[in-house]
Amino acid sequence: MLGRSFLHRTETAVNTESLAASLFQQLQQGQGLQQVSQQLGLDSNQTTQAVGSALPLLLGAMGQNASEPQGAQSLLNALQRDHLGGGGGGFDLGGILGAVMGGGGSGATDGAGILGHVFGGQQPQAAELLGQKTGLDSGTTGKLLAILAPIVMSFLAQRFAQQGNAGELSSALGQEAQHAGGGLGSLLGGALDQDGDGQFGASDLLKLGAGLLKR
């Protein structure tokens, strides 16, 4: 079954050299994890484990999306258009969290909309498998993914959008998909199989890329 080895992995899901690890560290350093914990009604240990599993899932899925040139360019366009911010002051984690949890309603903080582009119609399956990994119900993991999605996009925008190099973005996210590995990689492949043919291919990529371009 999809995700079997992912569900049985006991080690941390965050690779020490990955983008996921870098973002996870930033969430730990400030009030990010505490704010997420309060929003979801979880204790700190539950939140740490859940975020540590969700970030590689999100970044790995984006890596699948960006594995071919048109997908990478579509993602880069979305980062440049919606997630760079106007101040040029770098990655403002506190501001993004405040906007996401405050329900500001802009496209940049619309977690559900971003997840729709990342996972397509497979959002419930992704939330369910993440829930089985973390021991949380799928409703909670779905909310967590929606909180984290705008944060991940803003994080990527600050790292890659200003340079405007889709190849670098694709390469970095491709490593995230590799870091996810094992059953998580199988989950990503299944979640991103937009046309239901059992594999993630060009037709799936075109559907995902078209969604990003319409954002």
Largest sheet, if any? none
| Structure summary, number of beta strands | 0
- Please write the string of helix (H) and strand (E) elements: HHHHHHHHHHHH
Supply Rg: 16 Å
Low-confidence stretches: 1-16, 191-215
Assign the structural class, choosing from mainly alpha, mainly beta, alpha/beta, alpha+beta, or little secondary structure. mainly alpha
How much helicity do the residues have? over 70%
Notable characteristics:
215 residues; mainly alpha; 12 helices; globular; disordered N terminus; disordered C terminus
Description:
- This protein is globular.
- The protein is built from 12 helices and no strands.
- It is mostly helical and 215 residues long.
- It has helices spanning 4-8, 19-29, 32-40, 44-65, 69-82, 93-102, 111-119, 123-134, 138-161, 166-180, 182-191, 202-213.
- Helix 3 (32-40) packs across helix 4, helix 5 packs parallel to helix 12 (202-213) and helix 7 crosses helix 9 (138-161).
- The relative contact order is 0.21.
Quick structural gist:
The protein is mostly helical.
Q: Can you lay out the helices and strands and say which pair or pack?
A:
Layout: H1 4-8, H2 19-29, H3 32-40, H4 44-65, H5 69-82, H6 93-102, H7 111-119, H8 123-134, H9 138-161, H10 166-180, H11 182-191, H12 202-213
